Amino acid sequence: MGEKFALFAFNGDPMCFIHVVLNALDLDKKGFEVKVIVEGSATKLA
Q1: What are the residues whose beta carbons fall under 8 Å from the beta carbon of 5, sequence distance 6 or more?
Q2: Whole-angstrom Cα distance, residue 34 to residue 46?
Q3: Element (H, E) at 38
Q4: DSSP label at residue 4
Q5: pLDDT single digits (tens) 1-46
Q6: What count of other Cβ atoms lies within 10 Å of the Cβ of residue 9?
Q7: If exposure means fewest CB atoms within 10 Å of the residue's CB, which of 3, 16, 27, 36 is most exposed?
Q8: What is the DSSP code (8-state) at residue 45?
Q9: Would you state the pLDDT for residue 2?
Q10: DSSP 8-class letter at 14
């Protein structure tokens, strides 16, 4: 069974949000199961 990752974006800083998204894309490309959970002030960035 492959590894699974949950990445949380809760900071309203756009660079932090982009960092989470880029990490999720990288992990997905490597074959891992990835979920991004967006909450808090980051919901305004999605």
Answers
A1: 24, 27, 32, 33, 34, 35
A2: 17
A3: strand 33-38
A4: E
A5: 689 999 999 999 999 999 999 999 999 999 999 999 999 999 998 7
A6: 23
A7: 3
A8: T
A9: 82
A10: H
Single pTM value for the model:
0.86
What does the block give as tokens for 29? 């490309």
Instruction: Provide CB contacts within 8 A for 23, sequence distance 6+.
Output: 7
pLDDT of 22: 98
pLDDT at residue number 19:
96
Question: Half-sphere exposure of residue 14, counting CA atoms within 13 Å on the CB side?
Answer: 1
Res 46: pLDDT: 79
**CA dist., res. 6 & res. 8, Å (int):** 7
The CA distance from 34 to 12, in Å, is 21
